[in-house]
Amino acid sequence: MKNKISVAMLTTSYPSYLGDLRGIFIYKLVKSLKNYINVNLITLKGYDSLISGAGIIEKLNHSWMARFIFSIYFIHLYLKILFNVPKCDIIHANWGLTAFLALLTKPFYKRKILLTERSSFMLMTDNKFLIMLNKFIYSHVDSLVLISNFSKKLLYNKYNINNVKVIMNGVDNIEKKDKNSLRTKLKLPKADKIFLYVGRIDKKKGIQYLIEAFNKIVLEYKNVYLIIIGRGDYAERLKLDNEKIIFLGEKLQNEVFDYMLASDVFVLPSLNETGGNVLLEARSCGLPIISTKVGWAEDLINDSKDGFFINKQDPKDIYNKIIKILDNKTFSKLLKNSKNIKLNDWDDCAKAYAKEYKRLIHASKYD
User: Fold this and answer.
1) What is the 3-state secondary structure (H, E, C) of 241-258?
2) How many CA atoms lie within 13 A of 264 on its CB side?
3) DSSP letters of 93-148?
4) Which end of the chain is more exposed for a tag (fewer CB within 10 A), N or C?
5) Contact 117, 96 (CB under 8 A)
């Protein structure tokens, strides 16, 4: 029997406890990949102050302490990669930082490197040093993978690189449940419409504009609610004193799916995303989506047919699109078109990566 390919999976973000959603998509990819290949997960624990919340780059911009911790983190992660790479046939780096560290192992171990760039910040940054660093990384890895066609456009516009593959994240097979029964179970109000936001509570997610719009909506429509699920320091700065806006904090993944199935419309007012797994999950639950043109939105939404696009940082546009969707005839059309849309699951995603690993290993035999 042929030995399975062995892959070093590098990531700076990975769940560290039950219910931790950081890097949950890496966890799900690794779990599915293990059906086809051997996966050696390489990540670090104990650096939550650096990698939590908005992430490493944001912390480095504002904190000298974060920069000091990062120098230790950088060396620690590099040594761990250097120690584990000889055991693997190929390196799969998630985010540019881990790809840079993987490239530093090239003089010692000639392993092919696949990079999945998941950071919208890196694809959109105007920082000259980061642009130079990214160009070096993107041009020296053996395979560059992006997770959406939106990311591919960003990459081309900023770096003039077009030789990339797009492999979308998978989505869980979500068990369908009765909406009214779920609302009773979750103790949700008997509302005409429930709108849902799931994600980090961060100003870059545009949630402040959604709340501003919804505060006006409830003045005109009395039986409409907004549910907010997520965590983040920015929550303390938001004025959540409206009883029609329900902030639930962080929830387990299965609980999030129940809230999606109990809701009527999903809203994502984010300023930037490379993907946005919540969009895939909301679509899998059959929800019409209101979203800015970020990440997978353009891949998933047919404007005015199964959802609406909204302008970034525009509470008036959010207000107008919510008003449209509150019309029963419009909502019925959007809901009908949102049902039964086939999306790739995590097994499909794993197979696509396994195929790319094999291609790279085959190519290395002729280098």
Assistant:
1) CCCCEEEEECCCHHHHHH
2) 23
3) EESHHHHHHHHTTTTT---EEEEEE--HHHHH---HHHHHHHHHHHHHSSEEEESS
4) N
5) yes
Pick the CATH number of 6-170+345-364 from 3.50.50.60, 2.60.40.1930, 3.40.50.2000, 3.40.50.11740: 3.40.50.2000
Q: Collapsing DSSP states into helix, strand and coil, what is residue 196?
A: strand
Just give the CATH number of 179-338.
3.40.50.2000
- For residue 365, the one-letter residue type is K
Q: Write down the pTM of the prediction.
A: 0.88
For residue 321, what are its two tokens? 């699109």
Q: Report the pLDDT averaged over residues 199-213.
A: 92
Angle of CA points 209, 215, 221, to nearest 5°: 130
Domain segments of the chain as ranges: 6-170+345-364, 179-338
pLDDT (tens digit per residue) in 237-285: 776 678 899 999 999 999 999 999 999 999 999 998 877 889 999 999 9
Query: The tokens of 360 are what?
Result: 């790279």
Distance (Å, rounded) from C-alpha 226 to C-alpha 229? 10
Scanning 141-287, the segments in alpha helix (DSSP H) are 149-159, 179-185, 207-220, 253-262, 277-284
Element (H, E) at 233: none
Same fold: 6-170+345-364 with 179-338: yes
Query: Token pair of 228, please?
Result: 């907010």
- From residue 141, give the alpha-carbon distance in Å to each of 9, 154, 234, 272, 331: 15, 18, 36, 25, 46
Q: Report the C-alpha gap between 266 and 257 in whole angstroms.
A: 12
CB atoms within 10 A of CB 3: 7
Token pair for 298 = 């353009």
Please name which of 356, 362, 348, 359 lies closest in space to residue 28, comparing C-alpha atoms: 348
Residue whose pair of structure tokens reads 């769940």 in the numeric block: 15
**CA distances (Å), 104 to each of 36, 97, 111, 122, 164, in order?**
28, 11, 11, 20, 22
Q: Can you read off the two tokens belonging to residue 69?
A: 């911790």
User: Count of residues for the chain?
Assistant: 367
Q: For residue 205, what is the enclosing H or E element?
A: none
CA distance 284 to 263: 13
For residue 332, give the H/E element and its range: helix 328-338
Token representation of residue 104: 């530093």
